[in-house]
Amino acid sequence: MKEKIYLILSLLFVINSSAKCADNGFSVFPSNKNIKQNSIFVISGYYSSQDIIELLNKEYLVYLKSGDEKVNLIVSEFHKGQYNVSQSILKPEKNLKIGLEYTLVIDSLPGNENLEKFNSETYKYEPFKFIVTNDIDNEKPTFTSKPIIIKNENHFLGCGTSSFVVFNCPILDKSEYLVKATIRNIKSNKTSTYYVNPYNGKISIGHGMCSGAFYLEEENSYEVVFEIMDASANYTIWNKEKIKFKKPKD
User: How far is it, in rounded angstroms, from Cα 183 to Cα 163?
Assistant: First the structure.
């Protein structure tokens, strides 16, 4: 049980070598309980939970619920990562009501799937709940400087290798934000896109032991562009040169 908890909390980060890979799990953005009236949501699914993410509002209705108030969530984007993760970007059909506490719901989930998070204080699983504040954020996030590569990371762990190219990517915004990374394999011309969760102003491109947005191949060169989407759906495009990089060497 502890192993699965750790995985769900670590979908977008390097996973500790003592953990083993679970077979499903969800993570949700934003992570803060207090959200703005115009908040959006991102649900990511790990391994078998990717099937749920791909079928949201097709076989599995997704919405916010507060008492008798129900707000449908519209899928605006779907991205399949290259290593056991997928995500859907969801927009409420209308602005949320100030002061209400909404619970995020996916209907008709199979018995082995639960849209819950682990509370480290109570040591229990609980639904994803959000309280709407009296605030609307319409300001776009901004890059405070050009992203640059600061290090490469390779770690040989219990179930496989964790491999990342780490970029310093300082960003200023009033809301939580994700970075939309689009990488291109220069040799094959294939591209892949995924919204990556930054950590301390840094963006990690690659994959952890059990999952990750990007699976980089040996001896290939890549280029990446970064765009920003905050939790209030404000979007900043990339207007700089593409950044070239290679897979970290083993």
Answer: 15
Backbone angles phi, psi at 32, to 5 degrees: -75, 145
| Distance from C-alpha of 155 to C-alpha of 138, rounded to nearest angstrom | 40
Kindly report which listed range (10-24, 61-75, 136-150) carries the lowest average pLDDT score.
10-24
Q: What is the DSSP string of 80-112?
A: E-SBSEEEEEEEESSPPPTT-EEEEEETT--TT
Phi, psi values for residue 72, rounded to 5° = -70, 145
> pLDDT for 212-235, tens place per residue?
999 998 778 999 999 999 999 999
- Alpha-carbon distance of 227 to 243, in angstroms, equals 13
Number of CB atoms found within 10 A of residue 215's CB? 14
**CB count in 10 Å sphere of residue 134:** 8
Residue 250 CB neighbour total at 10 angstroms:
8
Strands 34-35 vs 129-132: parallel, antiparallel or unpaired: parallel
Hey, what are 195's tokens? 């919204």
- For residue 229, what are its two tokens? 């989407």
Is the pTM higher than 0.85? The answer reads: yes
Query: What residues form DSSP beta bridges with 66?
Result: 69
Cα separations in angstroms, 128 against 15, 37, 83, 94: 23, 17, 25, 19
**Single-letter amino acid, residue 93:** E
pLDDT tens for each residue of 131-156: 999 988 999 999 999 999 999 988 77
Q: Is the pLDDT of residue 250 over 70?
A: no
State which amino acid sits at residue 49.
S
- Classify residue 214 as exposed, middle or buried by CB count within 10 Å of its CB (0-12, 13-18, 19+): buried
